[in-house]
Amino acid sequence: MSNIIGIIIGLVLVVLGLVLLVAWWSMFTKALMAIIPLLLLLIGAGVLAYFISEMKSRQEIMEQKSPSQEKPAE
Hints:
The protein is mostly helical. The chain has a domain at 25-64. It is 85% helix and 0% strand. It has 2 helices and no strands. It has helices at residues 2-23, 25-65. The longest helix is centred in the middle third of the chain and has 41 residues, at 25-65. The chain is elongated, with a radius of gyration of 28 Å. The N and C termini lie far apart (86 Å). The relative contact order is 0.05.
């Protein structure tokens, strides 16, 4: 019985969402126009931070692998 109630509630919410999306289409597009630039900024900053961190890690690994240029003390 609870599965049927869940399906009915889901269908009502989908229909209500579609009706409101059509009724408020102009506000929906304005919200997208406001959100997309912010998302691009945040995603771009995250990508930059990730790849800069990867470059630093790779450089540290290469420094550890390469033999030192100094001669051992005698």
